[in-house]
Amino acid sequence: MIRPFMLVVAAALVTTLAGCAAAPAKPSQEPPRMPTVPVTRAEPVTDLLHGTAVTDPYRWLEGDNSDPKRMGQITPEVTGWTDAQNAYTRAVLDGQPGRKALEERLRPLMEVGSVTAPTVRGGRYFYSKREGNQNQPVWYWRLGVRGESRVLLDPAKLDESGLTTIAWISPSPDGRRVAYGTYKAGDEITTLHLLDVDSGEALPTTIPNRVDGAQWLPDGSGFVYRNLKDPKNPYSGQVMFHRLGTDVAEDRVLFRQFTREEDEKLATTWGPYGGLSRDGKWLVLSYFTSTNSNDLWVADFERYLATGELVKREISVGRDGWAFGQVAAGKLFVHTTQGAPNGRVDVVDLASGERKVLVADRPDAVIEEPFGGGLKLADGVLAVEYLEKASSAIDLFRFDGQPVGRLQLPGIGSGSLASEQDSTEAFLSFASYNYPSTIFRVDLTAPEAAPEVWERPDVPVDPAQVEVKQAWYPSKDGTQVSMFIVHRKGLELDGARPTILYGYGGFGISMTPTFSATLFPWLEDGGVYAVANLRGGGEYGAAWHQAGMLASKQNVFDDFIAAAEWLQKAGYTRRDRLAILGGSNGGLLTGAVAMQRPDLMQAAIVAVPLLDMLRYQDFLMARYWVPEYGSAEDPEQFRTLLAYSPYHHVKPGTRYPAIFLTAGENDARTHAMHARKMAARLQAATEGMDGANPVLLWVDREAGHGQGKPLNLRIRDAADQQGFLRWQLGMGVGN
Length: 735
Prior knowledge:
The protein is of the alpha+beta class.
């Protein structure tokens, strides 16, 4: 299942922006002369919203809005304007001293490899690995856990440009066939393909329109999948069944998304998903009704195959909170936050219908959010992935609820399991700020045993030189908020350390420790990196999420502002050495905070953001997020959104921090219009001001929200954004 908004971007920003090996600039270097900022014409449009007149001077930068079906499609005029902005940004960044040296220093760190935990089917181990200067990860398979690695899929052979991404693979139960999904240039419009594993030959079946994965029948004769009925309509989700050997046009609809005419509430949520049990007997169906709740059913899929009738059995409908189910051994294991804000596990006997609590809610720990985490099933073993003070712990239970023990982790960090229902062998992915990303092989019947390293990419840094702290600080309303702080061991806190403060604060997504080799040079050069666990996230349960959504969204900004103030009061940094960083929902965060407290920081990176919160819901798939933010179509929610919408709080003559906005032309999630309009308004507001800081915009024509970006483009982005931060915080950008 795809997470709702932005997860990959959060991790990618850490890798791209956390640091580089550039040395401080020499005092004798002259600052480069700034190019001329492109002029943007204002063409005001005034809307009367619930009795309030709201003027938008740059509506034309949204693109073609003449027809709701063409909402935001780029026009030649917008293309020309974007070309001018990109050229200006290139001239500014490429003109910084040491730009070439910066890229050369970054390259070996960006080329550090990566590997995923394997998926095991029929004794075959499928995993991806990226090495050296490969633009995209290559997929491999092994016969046996230590067998010889064989190439399964190499994206470079599919597309020499490096822009094609293999988004996922789904092996058949016997491991002899693989369904896999590809998209290009970050558009996430995934197409399903089939491959014969032994021969490497492509099979004729292809299924278009953003396919999320394949859930195979046990005999490999067919699979359940989810896609869009119309790729141009992100609200047309459907769960389908395909029988091998039949025409895709004959695939049957199992469950579909409601239209606005049928149900106004359900039409603006993430819609339907389906998962098939490993034995093929049960179909688990979910319909997400908000960003923190969903409906849940099960259906007898064998009966459906025999009769054509799909009878849904209600498990949870119309209730607040998650209810996320998986089937094993005739039982439905339900991870739920209904009446359990930190999460619990219920079990439903599918024969009798009896439901009971298996693992109770804990006051001191939170079960990880359900999108790929939280609950993992193995042969007779249930693994529950917890967060304790925003770090991982994994407890094991038998299917009757009896504890097996706590899985031994290498330290304090982020861990997740990949397991299979026919084995107690599992693979642990683990990382921390000072622990390289590593895949371990573990036995779930022996949690006390030290995990065995399965794969670990070589990392050319010394993690032992890094110190990680967790601090707690009070927000504006007195709420205690945690924050990870990372720096070189023995660093003297002189009150002027260049510091990057990162945050997200939304959708129940947790910011837990991660590893990035590119962070180390930043730390070696005396920099500090801090990550705040803001309300709106999931680090401390459903109540923590709810305290940062809808009418409570300002709490997220207050938490971030308080983190910046605390870092200065605690002697880490000062205003002119502090930068804030965020992407997607985190771009909304940094955009809002830069407008509310421009005096607090020197620089802000606002990546693939939402910024016009009065019109965001009209573009791309953004109606999915109305339950998180609200909509200006509602009078009360309009007032909340207007109070913080960054685009509407740009004030001429204000000394804003240096701001670097980014967007992807192919972004299927957050429309590039947000960054375009914000750049124009900020540039106009600061035009002619003495000492005004730069406002830069980079719209990537070969990328979307950030997913699947090839190595060469990531190196360019790292040099752009890292150079910008070092320039603004006085660290220099090269020798």
